[in-house]
Amino acid sequence: MNAITFLLGLLGLAYVGSILVGGRAIRGFGLASGAEYLVLGFVLGPQLLSVVGRSLVESFQPVVMVGVSWLGLVLGVSYLQVAEREIPLTRVVLGIVLSAAVSAVVSLTVFFGATYFSALPRLEILALASGAGLVCSETTRHSVRWIVERYGAKGPLADLAADTARASALFAALGLSVLNAWLPGGALPGFSVIARVLVSLALGSVLGLTAALLLGREFRRDESWGILLGTSLLGTGAAARLNLSPLSATFALGLTLAAVSRHRIDIKAMVIPTEQPVILPVVLLAGAYVNVKLPPVMLALVIAALVAKLSARALCGTLLSALSPPARGGGVELGISMLSSGALGLAVALAFCVRHPGQVSDTVLLLAALGVLLGEGLGPSALRRALTRAGEIKVEPSHGSGSTASLEQDNLT
Amino acid sequence: MSARVSGKKTFSTRLIQLFSLSITFGVLYGVTRLTPELESHLGTVAAVGFLLLAGTLMSELLETIGLPHLSGYLLAGIIGGPHVLHLVDHRTVEELSPVNTLALSLIALAGGAELRVSTLRSVARGLAWATLLQSTMVLVCVAGVFMVVAPYLPFARHLALKPQLGVALLWGVLAVSRSPSACMGILSQTRAKGPVATFSLAFIMLSDVVVVILLALMMMLARPLISASGGISIEDFSILGHEILSSIAVGVTLGLGLAIYLRLVGRQLLLVLLAIGFGMSDTFTYIGVDSLLAFLAAGFVVTNLSDQGPKLLHSIEQTGSVVFVVFFATAGAHLDIPLLEQLWPVAVALCASRALFTVVAGRISSRVAEDAPILRRWGWSSLVSQAGLALGLSVVIERAFPSFGAGFRSLAIAAVAINEMIGPILFKFALDRAGETDRHAPEVRPSLVPDVDPSSGM
């Protein structure tokens, strides 16, 4: 397959994604995490059918980075709010703490496993453990939205799940900036790790402020596209050239815009519909990037990391339902529901692959991909059961007719 | 080709734009100085972002002194390009060629969609005379000037009279090529409506076809003049005929398909245009079809055989508001400033003579065709710009005549650089003076075709 045919295929997929966003009638169908496109990418990719060859996949690296960064921008812009409802600070902190806890458990498991059972050098072990922790830290908000829309869930537990899922993005985005800054081969040799992290975040923030200034008092949609695209591409390219994290830079850009621009609602309304058309090609490319031909010890580490993630999520769910009134009754199933991961985890893994190519990043990407499949298998059904038990869900699927108002609005915008 | 609303901007807005422009330059300047070696394709991403932002901001700032947006895009590219600040290097400029492909396909599609049969009919007489005189008089006169300046050109000074005449004829063809992209860019910014705008658009779009035929004819004539072994071959015309006919046939098919899609589905036009721009351009090249002509025919069919033209134009406008900024800024970055410094005296002489003969030919054709006075005065103004098409012709000539092709192309690049910078300014000035620029700044740029409800059926 040549590059143009592949590009047309990706555009076709983006078209499908845009229909999934725009077509109300079919909303709620397909898998919550987009795992089917991940599998499709893997099947078409160099590991199985080789319809899309390795060199072709690698030649699409800039497209991957742009997609990943755009996802960062969308997450940043929509981070502080679910539709017009602001996420309470406690929920933001809770989401970050839960992500950090799961990430720490997975990282420690991988770190000790790799130290005792692999011959990897210390630096590679640290990179592997950190990368594994980051890709396991996210809970995709699409999983929550999918259940809410399909079953018409409404109530405090649904809101808690939506809020913590959304808040979990910050840990992955910030963590990736630290990991990128810490990895060798950076372009700022005289800078400390913290300084490099600050540079990547400052880059995004400065461009976000610039965009906010340019968008000015009157919001003009056509003009805004040029500004948003220009600043995000400049941020992506500049961060990539400095070997910093483009995803973190654009996340900071989006967050700054959401915080300071008076047009935050309009901006959100503009960029959120672009998320699905961007996610599907990125997920497909992630599937094509996946390499399963790894040494047995690495495969064993992937399995260990998945078990650690499952255990940590179950524990978090149990603790949360014991401590938080809205989560009461959720139990282990609330924790299992947080297993759902999606585009952000894959995006972090892809960004890691670009920054630190090799066996370690291949392992992290495989972990992210299997994490998506595991989350897809267990997460949505667990959330449905938890919400049913909490009395926030109807028994029959509503196909989007009775969704939580805020989430419904969020999807439209 | 921006779809921006150009309402009155305050002084503080301009200050913010200047500040943002300095931030844009500053970010990429800092990054390129910290990482002078580009090891991946990711620099292209930064370059696109930079060209888009800097081009937009520069155009806004130059607007205050009456310059067209297009000049701002070009200037941003020149300053950021490989010859001034080197924020965008040569390799990156080359890697941006898919953006050029996309932009040219959108320009041709939009150009075709702007041409209504009724519009063409209204300017048919003037168009026919202008085409005849601009194609013959300008070609012959500029070729004559080329003969005069040939002793100052390293690649032509040693040639005997006959080969020199052959090269001069080829230069003459180059002189009659125009820039559809510059024309569309200025019309889009100014939202101009009137005889000058209509005539310019129709003439320039049709001149594409004329120039392709002229090039084949002149190459056929020049070959025996330049090389003793060369002869006149009718086969060239047969190939050209096939190419033109197949381009139109493919374009009509594409246009019908597009009209049906717009009528029946009419959604996600951004993605459809991207797929057409990238995918069809590549396919057309593969099957030996002239993509510019094919897209022109497609746009023409959509407008004239359905009522989906406004919808198509609106979508191109939205897509183009980003693509065209990058396209023109890349063109600016592509300008070979050192070469221009080297060849400027001869290039200026050739450009000045081209402009002079274009004005004279325009005045004569308008008088003969009894055009409206405003057209007699300003009808020539859009014909000075040159861009990608002229450079494309120079590449064809370079390949066909390798003995002098490289020098010829260098001179072409220098001349096109001058025309590319001056032409749009002249055209905008003329539209302003002719009173065709829309000063009411409507929300959406009106098309040259009559208004039709975009949501209506075919």
Describe this protein's structure:
- The complex is a heterodimer of chains A (413) and B (458).
- Chain A is mostly helical.
- Chain A has a single domain (3-412), classed as Na+/H+ antiporter like fold (Up-down Bundle), CATH 1.20.1530.20.
- Chain A is 73% helix and 1% strand.
- Chain A contains 18 helices and 2 strands.
- In chain A, strands 1-2 form a two-stranded antiparallel sheet.
- In chain A, a hairpin with a 2-residue loop joins strand 1 and strand 2 (85-86).
- In chain A, helix 4 (61-77) crosses helix 13, helix 10 runs antiparallel to helix 11 and helix 15 (331-337) packs across helix 17 (359-389).
- The longest helix of chain A is centred in the C-terminal third of the chain and has 31 residues, at 359-389.
- Chain A starts with a helix and ends with a helix.
- Chain B has 458 residues and is mainly alpha-helical.
- Chain B has 2 domains: 11-96, no CATH class; 100-433, Up-down Bundle (Na+/H+ antiporter like fold), CATH 1.20.1530.20.
- Chain B has 18 helices and no strands.
- The longest helix of chain B has 33 residues, at 337-369.
- Chain B is globular.
- The interface between A and B is large, with 43 and 46 residues.
In brief:
The complex is a heterodimer of chains A (413) and B (458). Chain A has helices spanning 3-22, 35-44, 54-59, 61-77, 89-117, 122-135, 141-151, 156-182, 193-215, 221-241, 246-260, 264-271, 275-289, 296-323, 331-337, 343-355, 359-389, 405-412; strands at 81-82, 85-86.
